[in-house]
Amino acid sequence: MYGFEAMTFNIHGGYLEAIVRGYRAGLLTAADYNNLCQCETLDDIKMHLSATEYGPYLQNEPSPLHTTTIVEKCTLKLVDEYKHMLCQATEPLSTFLEYITYGHMIDNVVLIVTGTLHERDVQELLEKCHPLGMFDSIATLAVAQNMRELYRLVLVDTPLAPYFSECITSEDLDDMNIEIMRNTLYKAYLEDFYKFCQKLGGATAEIMSDLLAFEADRRAVNITINSIGTELTRDDRRKLYSNFGLLYPYGHEELAVCEDIDQVRGVMEKYPPYQSIFSKLSYGESQMLDKAFYEEEVKRLCLAFEQQFHYGVFFAYMRLREQEIRNLMWISECVAQNQKSRVHDSVVFIF
Amino acid sequence: MAQNQRLTVVPTVTMLGVMKSRLVGATRGHALLKKKSDALTVQFRQILKNIVTTKESMGEVMKDSSFALIEAKYVAGENIKHIVLENVQNASIKVRSRQENIAGVKIPKFEYFTDGETKNDLTGLARGGQQVQQCRAAYVKAIELLVELASLQTSFLTLDEAIKTTNRRVNALENVVKPRLENTITYIKGELDELEREDFFRLKKIQGYKKREIERQLAASKQFVEEQFAEKVSLQKGISIKSAQNLLSAGEKDEDIIF
């Protein structure tokens, strides 16, 4: 029943919603970012971060600090928080939380598969995987010799199985370009997630469909722009667009025939929410597009916290944390490479 | 070690001819090597200038390419590096080396060529594709510069070696070989002169001997003629001057004569 979640939500979800709101309060603010941008060396950054919630994670690092270490430790914190929430959750919240990580799982699977095809060492590949996307049988991916076996032996037991079977026949698995496979899987994942949220109903469905629609549209625009001038045909392109979102179906039709950025801009300007994004860019420039999309996403994610009694806050929190880690990486790399003037190019303030 | 030793040779005329031709050869070789050394030095300075400019731009380019990598990582996620690395079979940019000839010195030169297409045009399709392509372009530029710098530096080192060797040879010719040859020639000439003088002296001496011999013989024959005349005169007087004189002068010696 929409509107009456207040009555029953807190029975199962109240504790975790409180926890996640607590975590959200620990996100870095604009003042923190300003301090970090003023740092001269990576040690200064470490010092500033030890005053925030990242303190215990960075304390034990030896002094010549590397930017990848900072990012690793922050990701570790995110993983710890996620695991804490996951083990306290009940159905359907636990399924919801798992859905959030399927994206990373897809990335990890694709990484290991390509690495195995090119005969790299399994241990090295496992270290390069994203920690949020690990699952138990991931190491056995390296055993399979071709895609058919891969599916039969390993993937069929993972939660990613339905994505493989829906969109990929077994011939395609062998020949298809890795990127196309990755994007097809991701498309199936988004659609599945969307259906799941619709099934949950109520405020969750409303908020999550908005967020997922934005994600789908963003991916459609990115795919279009990045496939201009490559050998990806229009039909392939259309196959990678998800079948929900603001741009579905007419926008997708128009995007599929676009051949350069200005045509894309023309298509997007028909949709008011995206018009504002594209108006920030001058003609012919697309570098700032990614940052503009990130900013818009952060705005929508923050709005998710305004309502109570829905699961969207968890999704929003995970995404905001990831954005924060991206910001931290950007700031530390700029400081390490002495490019302080470019720091403000890409930092997206969350509050 | 004495600077001006000479070669030990038999001081004959043929040897003199040989030494002279060697000296001519040494002089010509000296002039040619000096020209070669000058040409190499000019090239060397040129390369040095190029190296300085290339290194300066190298700093800028590496900075830009690192930054492009950061931008790509920001948009496409931290793992983009691993994703790209895992997808690669062969290097698509390779380096070839050829030999070039500068003033007689063989110098290796490196040039890069693209071997095979990268099928990674779709990397970062959903996000970050543009940044990845930009990063790729930045690094290709960095590789170009690096290959050029490598060429320049190897030629720098090789030319340096060659210049040192050539200068060593020039100096050796100038300060050791030529003086030695000149000294040898002077020595041979000296020896030949001395031999000539000896011969001349010997000739003169022998002439002197011959003359004295002739005079002595003349004197001896004259005395003989005078004695013969005196003998003839004494025989006419009844006594042989020779025997009478002999008896008187050689009295104690003769055994037969008792008193």
Main attributes of the structure:
heterodimer, A: 351 residues, mainly alpha, Topoisomerase I, Chain A, domain 4, 68% helix, B: 259 residues, two-stranded antiparallel sheet, 2 strands, ion transport (chain A), V-type proton ATPase subunit (chain A), proton-transporting ATPase activity, rotational mechanism (chain A)
Please characterize this protein's 3D structure.
The complex is a heterodimer of chains A (about 350) and B (about 260). Chain A is mostly helical. In chain A, helix 6 runs antiparallel to helix 11 (about 180-200) and helix 9 (about 160-165) crosses helix 11. Chain A has 19 helices and no strands. The model of chain A has no long low-confidence stretch (mean pLDDT about 85). Helix content of chain A is about 70%, strand content about 0%. Chain A has a domain at about 1-80 and about 310-350: Orthogonal Bundle (Topoisomerase I, Chain A, domain 4), CATH 1.10.132. A two-stranded antiparallel ribbon of chain B has the order 1-2. Chain B is rod-shaped. Classes of the chains: A mainly alpha (about 350), B mainly alpha (about 260). At the A-B interface, helix 6, helix 11, helix 12 and helix 18 of A face helix 1, helix 2 and helix 3 of B. Chain A: Keywords: Hydrogen ion transport, Ion transport, Transport.
Please give a quick description of this structure.
Chain A has a domain at 1-81 and 310-350: Topoisomerase I, Chain A, domain 4. Helix content of chain A is 68%, strand content 0%. Chain A is built from 19 helices and no strands.
Secondary-structure element sequence of chain B? HHEEHH
Written as H for each helix and E for each strand, in order along the chain, the element string of chain A is HHHHHHHHHHHHHHHHHHH
* Contiguous runs where pLDDT drops below 50 for at least 5 residues of chain A: none
Classify the oligomer.
Answer: heterodimer
CATH arch. level architecture of the domain at 1-81 and 310-350 in chain A: Orthogonal Bundle
Let me know the number of strands of chain A: 0
The CATH homologous superfamily name of the domain at 1-81 and 310-350 in chain A equals: ATP synthase (C/AC39) subunit, domain 3
Which CATH top level class of the domain at 1-81 and 310-350 in chain A fits?
Answer: Mainly Alpha
The main pleated sheet of chain B reads as:
2 strands, antiparallel
- Strand content bin of chain B: 5-15%
Structural class of chain A: mainly alpha
Largest binding interface between chains: A-B, 41 and 30 residues
From the N-terminal CA to the C-terminal CA of chain B, the straight-line distance is 85 Å
Helical segment tally of chain B? 4
Shape verdict of chain B: rod-shaped
